[in-house]
Design goal:
This is Alpha-1,4 glucan phosphorylase. By secondary structure, the chain is α/β, with parallel strands linked by helices. Helix content is 49%, strand content 15%. Helix 19 (492-517) packs across helix 30 and helix 26 (693-699) packs across helix 27. Bound molecules: ligand 26Q. Ligand 26Q binds next to helix 6.
């Protein structure tokens, strides 16, 4: 479209919609009109993509995830359509700024953290690699809570993200399905010698899909993300005149559970899980039936992938439909189900494993319960002769009054993968070893990835421009080409340009920190970043203790030549996780003390950003010099901020945990700052039970001084929290070995200081990180899923990999 046409259309569309001129409109309205125009381009490709899939009867993957964190979509859609620059120009002619309009979009927080963001990176990569794929999730009325700090404490506010409507969704009322809960189920013998399943007194809920286009990168592909909303069925309004019943239905898709690593067995959560699993499976069945193929070909046309155990009920749901509605035999249905479903595990923590009380499942989902019991019975009967009772019973789905979702997911699928090499090894060798013995061929690794489009091209346009002028633009389509950048590591001019890019990005963040938090930052300081959910195992506390250590040192001797640093934190704590909230309060108290201490000047600053999410990540990551990846070895399944920060030239200070191990392998030990115990050492402590945190406190003078500062009133306003943290470390023996790794951490941080002072060396390390980040493109991860698990071939567009 010509710029002139664009302007004309924009003016007209605005007036047609609002009956006043765009100059009088709000940013939200100006954005809405732009989005309408973008959608009309997208929709054509969307229809064409669907027609192609249908005509070719392509195999499709359905990615079931309880969470998606897509971030704002305007610029990402423009980039992927290949019209970002043109639209920017057109808007300028109209006197509008694309950046302003982009910021008027809400950032849908329909997820907690890593798992949800991964799902969205995957959606982008599935479309961009030309794979026929769909997302399946929940359209929560309220997203993850908005975080505010009040006197340094986290306060949670509701996130009413739909207030102005969602410009990218299309309500598909004609694709609604019914999901049944509760009631009684009877198996009534029929003339054919089998039986019919008769339901009585069920609560029927209408699942209405809202579809969101997933635009591929300059390849014409538009896939679908389908988010389900719970509504009262048509014609049932009479029945639902009771306020209470209406409320109950509305509640199902009302809020996202804000816990990301702690299992909390609430009935409503179980309802959510079945609701979107059932709706998704029903709509897949409806799609498959259009082809009029034998059921045995179902796995040749459909792959269902479950993102952690949250959608596991799609296994018994698929069984239910095949058995009860399509009248297949158990063996046929079971074969099809196993061949269709695959599962990714995202956690090592035992306390995060989902298990539901048997009685809850029985009451809420009587038919599904029967099917789960039968799956379990057959599993036990089949495996005891092979593996004996002890091992077999450890793999039971139903045990001690509980239904274990991971066990059901493994038994009912053909593939289970971890999300980084170390994580997958730990699953096979320890956490899920019993299953590994039974089904070694099901286990595999798929190291996570990130989309370079959002995390480099959109978030860091200046670095993108520098890469384009040095290595060309082929890397936009094939991210391993970033490797070409390595050839410039001794090029003074390129290093200088890299420094300028980093400085500009730091200036942008500094402007935000000043406006939002009133903190003045110097861009000469090293920007040290830890952004992730707040959890004890991620050890934000280790970071905080290091800062406190530096502070105490500087107070004692102001001449110490520490490299000035800005410590940036972004983290939400689950509302019920009180220890995590205490750490937030403690870090905020530390920030207030240090930022206002005249003796410290620019040597130390702390910024704990409020309400961390995808949009803030896009601002912070390009500004980072150091990436803090300091979880206790063996605890972080993968991590993905580690990849995003590396891609933007930050140097990792990290333990050998999750994907850090692979990052270090690619970038080389000389460009990665390793510290702390490895997984073996941690395991050894678990085996011998010899860890004694109090002993470290009593014998290590640095630890002693820092810990005393937690309880002697050094940090004003955090006495209670200081004491609580002290106790967790000393009295309760420091579950995550913070004190054990402390020395190694502060030593490594001193090395970081020294390296940073040698700017050429530092820039070379930074450049090497960028150049080696290509393999962590989610495009490659997705191609491996497609090839090895889903058995789907990418569509060969102009720029397929
Ligand atoms: C389960 C039951 C009840 C309520 C909530 C939950 C729940 C919700 C979300 C449990 C876990 C999550 C999220 C987990 C998560 O984000 N894990 C992270 O996944 C990333 C992507 O694979 C990894 O990089 C991280 O290492 C991992 O922590």
């Amino acid at each position: 479209m010509q710029v002139k046409d664009f302007e004309k259309q924009y003016r007209k569309k605005f007036i047609d919609t609002f009956a006043y001129t765009y100059q009088e409109g709000s940013k939200v309205e100006q954005l809405a009109i732009l989005a309408e125009m973008v959608k009309s381009i997208i929709n054509e490709n969307w229809i064409a993509t669907n027609q192609r899939y249908q005509a070719n009867q392509d195999k499709q993957v359905f990615y079931f995830s309880m969470e998606f964190l897509p971030g704002r979509m305007l610029k990402s859609n423009l980039l992927n359509l290949g019209i970002l620059q043109d639209v920017e120009k057109g808007l300028k002619e109209l006197g509008l700024d694309l950046e302003d309009l982009a910021k008027a979009e809400v950032d849908p927080a329909l997820g907690n953290g890593g798992l949800g963001r991964l799902a969205s990176c995957f959606m982008d990569s599935i479309a961009s690699t030309g794979i026929a794929g769909n997302g399946n999730g929940i359209r929560y009325r309220y997203g993850l809570f908005k975080q505010k700090f009040v006197d340094g404490y986290q306060v949670e506010l509701p996130e009413n993200w739909l207030r102005n409507g969602n410009i990218w969704e299309v309500r598909k009322e004609n694709k609604a399905v019914t999901v049944r809960f509760g009631g009684d189920v009877q198996l009534v013998p029929n003339v054919g010698g089998s039986f019919d399943v008769v339901y009585k007194d069920t609560l029927n809920i209408l699942a209405v899909p809202y579809d969101v286009a997933q635009v591929g990168y300059q390849n014409g592909v538009v896939n679908n993300l389908r988010l389900w909303s719970a509504e009262i069925p048509y014609g049932d309004e009479e029945r639902f005149n009771l306020e209470k019943e209406r409320e109950e239905i509305k509640k199902i898709t009302e809020v996202l559970y804000p816990d990301d690593s702690n299992y909390d067995g609430q009935l409503l959560r179980l309802k959510q899980e079945y609701f979107f699993s059932s709706a998704g499976v029903q709509s897949i069945i409806r799609y498959f039936k259009k082809f009029d193929l034998p059921w045995s070909q179902f796995p040749d046309k459909i792959a269902i992938h479950i993102n952690d155990t949250h959608p596991t009920l799609c296994i018994p749901e698929l069984m239910r439909i095949l058995l009860d509605e399509e009248k297949l035999s158990w063996d046929q249905a079971w074969e099809i189900t196993k061949k269709t479903v695959s599962y990714t595990n995202h956690t090592i923590l035992q306390e995060a494993m989902e298990r539901w009380p048997q009685d809850m499942v029985k009451t809420l989902l009587p038919r599904i319960y029967q099917i789960i019991l039968e799956i379990n019975r057959r599993h036990i009967a089949k495996k005891i002769p092979l593996y004996g009772e002890e091992l077999t019973y450890r793999t039971a789905i139903v045990s001690q009054g509980q239904i274990k979702m991971a066990n059901l997911a493994i038994i009912g699928s053909h593939s289970i993968n971890g999300v980084a090499k170390l994580h997958s090894d730990i699953l096979m060798e320890s956490t899920l070893n019993d299953f590994y013995i039974m089904y070694p061929q099901k286990f595999n690794n798929k190291t996570n990835g990130i989309t370079q489009r959002r995390w480099l091209q959109l978030a860091n346009p200046e670095l993108t421009a520098l890469l384009d002028e040095t290595i060309g633009t082929e890397w936009h389509f094939n991210h391993t080409e970033l490797k070409l950048f390595k050839a410039y590591q001794n090029n003074a001019e390129v290093l200088e340009k890299l420094a300028v890019v980093k400085r500009h990005n730091k200036e942008k963040f500094a402007a935000y920190a000043l406006e939002k938090h009133g903190v003045v930052l110097s861009t000469d300081a090293l920007f040290d970043v830890q952004i992730k959910r707040l959890h004890a195992y991620k050890r934000q506390l280790l970071n905080a203790l290091h800062i406190l250590h530096r502070y105490l040192e500087l107070k004692e001797d102001p001449t110490i030549a520490y490299q000035p640093r800005v410590f940036i934190f972004g983290a939400k704590a689950a509302p019920s996780y009180s220890y995590a909230k205490s750490i937030i309060k403690f870090i905020n108290a530390l920030a207030t003390m240090i930022n206002n201490d005249k003796d410290i000047e620019d040597k130390l600053k702390i910024v704990f950003v409020e309400n961390y999410g995808v949009s803030l990540a896009e601002l912070i990551i390009p500004a980072a010099d150091v990436s803090e990846q300091i979880s206790l070895a063996g605890k972080e399944a993968s991590g993905t901020s580690n990849m995003k920060l590396m891609l933007n030239g930050a140097i990792t200070v990290g333990t050998l945990d999750g994907a850090n191990v692979e990052i270090r392998d690619y970038v080389g030990t000389e460009n990665f700052m390793t510290f702390g115990m490895d997984n073996e050492e941690v395991e050894e402590f678990y085996r011998n039970g010899n860890y004694n945190a109090r002993h470290i406190y009593e014998t290590n003078p640095r630890v002693h001084r820092v810990l005393n500062a937690l309880i002697d009133g050094t940090v004003p306003g955090a006495n209670g929290e200081g004491q609580e943290i002290f106790d967790s470390l000393v009295t309760y023996n420091d579950e995550y070995f913070v004190l054990k790794d402390f020395e190694s951490y502060i030593t490594t941080q001193l090395e970081v200081d020294a390296l940073y002072k040698d700017q050429v060396k530092w820039l070379q390390m930074s450049l090497n990180n960028i150049a080696n980040a290509g393999p962590f493109s989610a495009d490659y991860t997705i191609l491996r899923y497609a090839d090895e698990i889903w058995k789907i071939h990418p569509y060969k567009g102009d720029h397929s990999l």
